[in-house]
Specification:
single chain; about 350 residues; seven-stranded mixed beta sheet; three-stranded antiparallel beta sheet
């Protein structure tokens, strides 16, 4: 009997099974009521009393070893099955929900990238400003309508604490602190007391550019603008400068680009003129340089300012300004692939 036990023990240690059904067949073969181990249990009854102790122990060990071995085999096969079921190498990956960058951020970054290729660096300033940086230093007359409460948000009725209406205030802060040469780009949010509609909002975004050095001329301004327009809207883009007025530049101009929708032929977007306005610019008024402590006899400069929403509308034809701040993901998701 002891040989039989040892033989079964050896058999059980080397069992293999390719599937769960085979494991079940082995269980029946060894462990069921009619199995090999049960048969030995039957034989055990006839074993002489003095051998019972030793053989009984061996028999129990055999039974435990067989049970453990078979359940280990079953477990291994079940786990392997689970992995197989999940591992389908031909399946398309589960889409990873990527966030999208806001269209205004995309356009702001693009503007910054273009100007940084010309050596402009970023400067930022506060959104809550004072009269000096937003108006007085920029040569606004005391009675200029932009100072009116209808246009400007003042804080707590204190006319010296206000939300900046343009990023030109950052020019002043930079010029006050830095000696020329200055070449900065000032992106930021601005506020105006306007009724909200598809075409106007009480806040929007601007990027201001400022270049101050010896001998900066209008030709430098024009060439910079042409470079910007072509990088932003394509190499075929034409620009046109129309005389304009801003208190802080003299002379001042507004820049149009050839309509990027119809290529200048005329369409409803450009009101059949072939041109669309995109920014204001000019030579920094000597009064502004002096107000910021820069010698206007030695230095000259140009400045330009554009609305990020306006450029974004031109690039992506967003018809309603309110969409930019509504956080409607159906709108925002359309920009997923625009890096
Ligand atoms: N600050 C002007 C505005 O908000 C935009 C502007 C025009 C900025 C001409 C400039 C400039 O620097 O030269 O409408």
């Amino acid at each position: 009997m002891i040989e039989k036990i040892n033989q079964l023990r050896a058999e059980i240690e080397s069992l293999t099974a390719a599937g769960l059904q085979e494991v079940e067949a082995l269980r029946i073969k060894y462990l069921s009521k009619k199995g090999a181990i049960s048969a030995l249990m039957q034989d055990f009854r006839t074993v002489p009393a003095e051998k019972k102790r030793e053989l009984g122990q061996k028999l129990n060990e055999l039974k435990e070893a067989a049970t453990a071995r078979l359940s280990a085999m079953r477990e291994a096969l079940e786990n392997a099955d689970a992995v197989d079921a999940d591992l389908d190498l031909t399946r398309t990956p589960i889409p990873f929900p990527l966030g999208t960058r806001h269209p205004l951020s995309l356009v702001r970054e693009e503007i910054i990238a273009i100007f940084s290729r010309l050596g402009f660096t970023i400067a930022e300033g506060p959104e809550i400003e004072d009269d000096w940086h937003v108006f007085s230093a920029l040569n606004f007359a005391d009675d200029h309508p932009a100072r009116d409460m209808q246009d400007t948000f003042f804080i707590e009725r204190n006319p010296d604490v206000l939300l900046r209406t343009h990023t030109s205030s950052v020019q002043v802060r930079v010029m006050e602190k830095t000696a020329p040469p200055i070449r900065v780009l000032c992106p930021g949010r601005v506020y105006r007391n306007e009724a909200i509609s598809a075409r106007a909002h009480c806040f929007f975004h601007q990027v201001e550019g400022l270049y101050v050095d010896e001998n900066v001329s209008f030709a430098d301004l024009r060439q910079t603008l042409l470079y910007f327009a072509r990088e932003m809207f394509g190499p075929e883009t034409k620009i046109r400068l129309r005389p304009s007025y801003f208190p802080f530049t003299e002379p001042s101009a507004e820049m149009d680009i050839s309509c990027n929708l119809c290529g200048g032929k005329g369409c409803s977007f450009c009101k059949h003129t072939g041109w669309v306005e995109i920014l204001g610019c000019g030579m920094v008024d000597p009064n502004v340089l002096e107000a910021c402590g820069i010698d206007s006899k030695k230095y000259s400069g140009f400045a330009l300012g554009m609305g990020v929403e306006r450029i974004t509308n031109l690039k992506y034809q967003v018809k309603d300004l309110r969409m930019f701040s509504e956080n409607d993901v159906r709108f925002l998701r359309q920009f997923t692939s625009a890096h």
